[in-house]
Design goal:
Layout lengths: L8 E5 L1 E3 L9 E3 L2 H9 L3 E5 L9 H5 L4 E4 L24 H17 L3 E4 L1 H9 L4 E2 L9 E10 L4 H6 L3 E8 L2 E2 L7 E6 L4 E5 L7 E4 L11 H17 L1
Parallel strand pairs: 1-4, 1-5, 5-6, 6-13
Antiparallel strand pairs: 2-3, 7-10, 8-9, 8-11, 11-12, 12-13
């Protein structure tokens, strides 16, 4: 059976939610804008359950998909990158979410599956490759929450190819940022204050780019942001 004319399957690890308005119990969710952006780009978004990798082989689960999107979410536990203490602002830490997302990052890169990592997703990839995070950027005058600001994009990168721009308006919601950069990763974008806003891994067998912002927020009106989802879906299609 050929899959040439079907939408590429894009796996999106679900996020645990304590409550949702439409359901009576705790839920596993993905942001509607994120799912719609993948669909708009021509992909078939599929939420996958964050099961313990010790009991469910992540590489085997991912093998049926054409691409992966690591979405935003709460903070990684600081011990994941070697910190011995935790800042008071660290929030929504979930050990199962952490271990699953980190394994997804490693296995996706090893399998050569196309990967787009967003916000927490960028931080997950950085930590998975031995990097660390600044636990809190410091107060409302420094954090990048509920703001749209310009980011400078490095020329010749997959990020530039996807967005078609050397500068983009980034919709941000994060209070943490990359500190030590993971092994092999290259910075592809920065904010005016020096915050790392993009990462790539030259030499990886599959298409991969990561952004610290949320392109899904404005993908319905900003061609550069939709371009990230277009590039992911196109890479997934080409891999077939």
């Amino acid at each position: 059976m050929t899959r040439t004319h079907t939408r590429p399957l894009i796996a999106i690890p679900a996020r645990f939610a304590a409550t949702t308005s439409a359901l009576r119990y705790a839920a596993e969710v993905n942001a509607r804008a994120l799912v719609e952006a993948v669909w708009r780009a021509g992909g078939e978004p599929v939420s996958i359950h964050p099961a313990d990798p010790a009991g469910a082989d992540v590489a085997e689960r991912l093998a049926r998909f054409d691409g992966v999107l690591l979405p935003g979410g709460g903070d990684l536990a600081p011990h994941r990158y070697g910190a011995t203490d935790s800042h008071d602002s660290v929030y929504d830490v979930d050990d199962l979410q952490d271990v699953f997302d980190l394994e997804v990052a490693c296995q996706t890169l090893d399998l050569g599956l196309p990967l787009l990592a967003i916000c927490r997703g960028l931080q997950v990839v950085n930590v998975a490759l031995g990097g660390s995070l600044e636990q809190d950027m410091g107060g409302v005058d420094r954090e990048h929450r509920h703001i749209v600001h310009p980011v400078a994009i490095q020329r010749g990168t997959l990020l530039e190819q996807a967005t078609g721009a050397e500068k983009a308006e980034a919709s941000c919601y994060h209070h943490q940022r990359v500190d030590r950069i993971g092994v092999g990763l290259k910075v592809t974008a920065r904010a005016a204050d020096g915050t790392v806003e993009g990462l790539e891994l030259p030499g990886t067998p599959g298409w991969f780019t990561a952004v610290q912002w949320h392109p899904e927020d404005t993908a319905d009106q900003d061609r550069a942001q939709l371009g990230l989802f277009d590039a992911l879906v196109q890479a997934a299609h080409n891999r077939r």
